[in-house]
Amino acid sequence: MNIAFWSEEAGSGMTSSMAAVASICSDVWNIKTVLLQSRNQKGDLYQKLGAGSFGWHDRITADRLVTVRKGRLYYLMQPDYAKQQQYPEFFKKSMQRLIQRAEQFAELAFTDCGSGEDALSADILSRADVSVINISQGRRHLEQFFQKRHACSGRGVYLVNQYHQESVYNKQYLNRQYRIPKEALAVIPGSQFFRYASDNGKAERFVLKYARCMKMDGQSYFMQELVHAADLILNSAGFEKGSDQWTKRGPEACRM
After folding, report:
1. Which residues contact residue 224 at a Cβ distance below 8 angstroms, ignoring those fewer than 6 apart?
2. Is residue 7 a contact partner of residue 82, using CB atoms and an 8 Å limit?
3. Which has more pLDDT, 59 or 13?
4. Distances (CA, A) of 45 to 98, 155, 185, 256
5. What is the DSSP secondary structure assignment for residue 256, as one 8-state letter?
6. In whole angstroms, what is the distance from residue 57 CA to residue 75 CA?
7. How far apart are CA 129 and CA 126, in angstroms?
């Protein structure tokens, strides 16, 4: 199952949010998850999730699989590539092959498409099973974004990063003003503690710590909304929840 994350603007905190959602899926619900980043940006998953042991190595693209938590969470460490508007066909095929390989390895493959509009991001989003579109609460950005109303194939979830509940443009406003169904809008509240952890390679450790005791240090609201965001994304991906665990709906068996 390929879930693609994308934002129209840079600096939205999308990579950190993707790492946090993946940590909930892997550490809380025991879903084997692998993260990777598009070829249109510098790979910074190392910055968010820290170092770990290396697994398989892709000889063609030099990607290496890093173990964050054995049997549960992994990411691909990749070389840096400059962002372009147009990409050679082999570039797209290389990315497609990596995503397919990630899907074969784990139940969930999260792909960070980066920010802005370019041919590679569009190609990844068009093939994704679920698109997670990251948006901000700024009025100008919201109006410009929903005027274009980006369309992606498959199912989609809107995710507000660094969310501020007291803002006029809060979740209820977005539901009402832009007619976004409740099941398609998730938020991850702003947290200076999570931001610090994420900037220092400890995003997964932060989530695991507070998932065990959500009331510690005033992080209950952050964790509550993070878990809800992961709920919505998995539901959109065709998983169903029972006894606090998620299983894939339909005839396809989960790959372990």
Report:
1. 214
2. no
3. 13
4. 16, 25, 25, 23
5. -
6. 12
7. 9
Over the stretch 50-95, which tens digit does the pLDDT of each residue have?
887 777 766 656 578 899 999 999 998 876 555 666 777 887 888 8
SS3 state at 223: helix
pTM over 0.85: yes
Distance CA 24, CA 45 (A): 16
Q: Is 202 exposed, middle or buried (0-12, 13-18, 19+ CB in 10 A)?
A: middle
Banded model confidence at residue 253, pLDDT cuts 50, 70, 90: very low
Query: Comparing C-alpha atoms, which of 15, 19, 70, 66 is closest to residue 42?
Result: 15
Instruction: Please give the helix or strand (H or E) that residue 67 lies within, else none.
Output: strand 64-69
Closest CA to 77 of 66, 61, 91: 66
Q: Return the H-helix or E-strand segment holding 143.
A: helix 139-148
Q: 88 CB contacts (<8 Å, ≥6 apart)?
A: none
User: In whole angstroms, how far apart are CA 241 and each of 169, 217, 230, 234?
Assistant: 30, 28, 12, 9
Q: What number is the average pLDDT over the span 32-50?
A: 84
Which residues lie closer than 8 Å to 68 by C-beta, 6 or more apart?
Answer: 49, 50, 52, 74, 75, 204
Instruction: Give the DSSP H or E segment for 65.
Output: strand 64-69
